[in-house]
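Kindly review these tokens for lecture notes.

. . .
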Amino acid sequence: MSMKRPRSKSTIKSQLIISFLLVISIFLSVYTFAFILLKRTYGEIIEFQINQNDLNNLSIIMDSGATEIDNFLISGNQTYFKNSETIFANFQSELKSLKNKLPTIFLYQLKDIANMEETYKEFTTIAISDLQKGIDRIYINRKRQELYRLNGYIKAECGNLLSLYLNHTKEKIIILRKILEIYENLAYFAILLSGFIAAYIALRIANGIAEPLHQLSERALLVSAGNLDVSPLEYSKNDELGNLVHSFNTMTLELRNLIQDVKDKAILEIKLKEEKIKITEIQNSLQKTELELLQSRINPHFLFNALSAVTSLARSESAPNTREAVESIAQIMRYTISSKKQPNKLEEEIELVKNYLYLQGLRFGKRLRWSVDLDEDSSDILIPPFSIQPFVENAVIHGIEPKETGGTVQVYCTPSLSKDAVEIVIRDDGVGIEENILTKIMSTYQNDKSNHLGIANVRKRLEMLYGENTVKIESIVNKGTSIKITIPYRSSSGNFLESHQ
């Protein structure tokens, strides 16, 4: 017999999935790296552009505020003045933001712009004060011209600062754009590289599958033509194709041996069938012998005739107790003799049990109390002989006899709840059966008849006829034993039992 190939740990599907995940991982790794670099570079360029816009807005904000002050000095409308306060507040906030963002080399220019803005505000305050005092418009216009001049200085300084910043960032922006171009090319390269790797892996997998299949197909054609002398196909991977190749190699090897093995197996099967028939015959013989051995314990025919003579003698000598005891023994012997080849009615088996208990009652006296009850509807049920008496004998000998105070044995037969069987219960309140002995009785087929009067054999015989769980035994040490035998009504015709005789 060829050795079995171990279960596949790798499959073609898993190889494809792993290859796909590898390509995706490479692609994502390179692309993610390029994306991070691109994002960082874009971020720096955008930051420079934001700073340029902020510097340009600084001049625009200042010019807007100066316009609002000039309109106020012309018209005296407070709305222009309030607007100017808001605008100059934004100007100071923008200056503060630029101080935090721009390099330290620009702090001097920012400080100058802040000082110039303070000077402008001081002149504004003076001009507004003169306007409120009603000073001649000529002087007010001069103040306006001075404020216009200061605004020009501030705008010029903002322009100079913007130019300085542009010169400072010009080279950096050029470098960043070159780096950005490199990173973009790297992202495109990652896509192309992933595509090439995917194509390469796909070709490798396709070739790894197609080539062995081609060789396997050629060998299969040879085998189908009757040529079994093909060389084994080599394939090292432990996947579905490997299983297929291994199975094909094993099949061709077994086919070469099968032709010779067929004859040997045919001869062996014939021998096995003959042995099976012999074993069946032996088992049937053993079953019959077992029943006969069970009966032979109280079977001698001449003893029955002798007991009949003793009964007549006891009757003539007016010894009623002796006569009744001898008659019970005689009835037991008669039952034994007549039960060798056919099943008996349940009432006959119960009568045997009554005679047996009567004789044991003579022996044990008041130490043994017993009762037997048979439902009339169940009296004609056919059962194998000696199906109840061994259990009753076990209850008396092993349950009641060892108990100093004696005990009670109850036997009753009633229909089951489902009305399709009769339940025979043998119950005693004796010393019970130890757990290890009970386990042995319920799990083995005893050949030793001395152990609990062979009740294991009786149980086995009943279960062979009626199926498992026909006999149920429950026992508690020092409290007693209960045995329930379930006989289906279908056995009442006797055909079922007779087929097992």
